[in-house]
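Team,

Forwarding the record for the chain on the shared tracking sheet. I've put the sequence and predicted structure together so nobody has to dig through attachments.
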Amino acid sequence: MDIQHRHLHADASLHTQLAVTAAAPTPVVPAYGPAIFAAVTLALFPASSFAQVSVEVSPLRAELTAGPGSTTTQAITVTNAGKDPVRVRAALTDWELSKDGAPQFESAVENGPFSATSWVRVAPPEQVVEPGKEATVRYSLSVPASVQPGGYRTGILFEFGPASGDPVGRGREVLFKSRIATLIYVNIGQPPIAAELTDLRNRTLGQQTLIVATVRNTSRRYVRTKGTLVVLDTSGQPVREVQVPDVPLLPESEREVAMAVVDPEKKLTLAPGDYRVELRLDVGLPALLVGETTLKVLR
């Protein structure tokens, strides 16, 4: 593999998968990986009742590969592991990732250029799940025939409220105290990958020392990161190797990828001194993206 090499010197200061294929006109055949779920424990009722519930949602991420004009229906499982009934509301939502990779819903552009929200229908939009029971929420995706190749996305936002509340309807409100989202990626075609490493610097966060790479994806498709970060001493000997986390870069976006090289809680330490840091980043291009920076560890 070729290497694209860049020297990026910083200043001294200092987030399981469901994979599905939906290619028209052939039938959809899901390929399941390890289940991914989120559990949330929350207070749903007024303070006088102190009711607590535990709800699990699986999967938290679904990746669909589809073609123009294709359709598919998939399912999400909601489990009430608590002792009281809980009302679950499911609603479609656009989303984006902040620069540090956190999902953002309120600030996301509705029906943006890579939104798949208008292609999806959810049923049922609201239901009550009894204690110890599972419920299924299904979503149907219909891809427009004229869609351009690219990485599209939507999400289903699950909100939880007391079962005794009124159903959501026009002019009615139910107080929902907590939310979990399933993020849905829809890959159409194989547009070329175009990405670059724009910055590499060190940053302190509490007792942690992080090496933070800024990566810009200028293509219309999703890319994911992998690779290695190596810390070398003044003699050129490697003293630490860190795996680059597997994180997504949305189309036409920029994000930071952080890797800890000092973290006392994980027993990651470096002796005081000067170090050189080299990153080899694989985003699916024919060539690796390589950057270098320096790190000074004080006593």
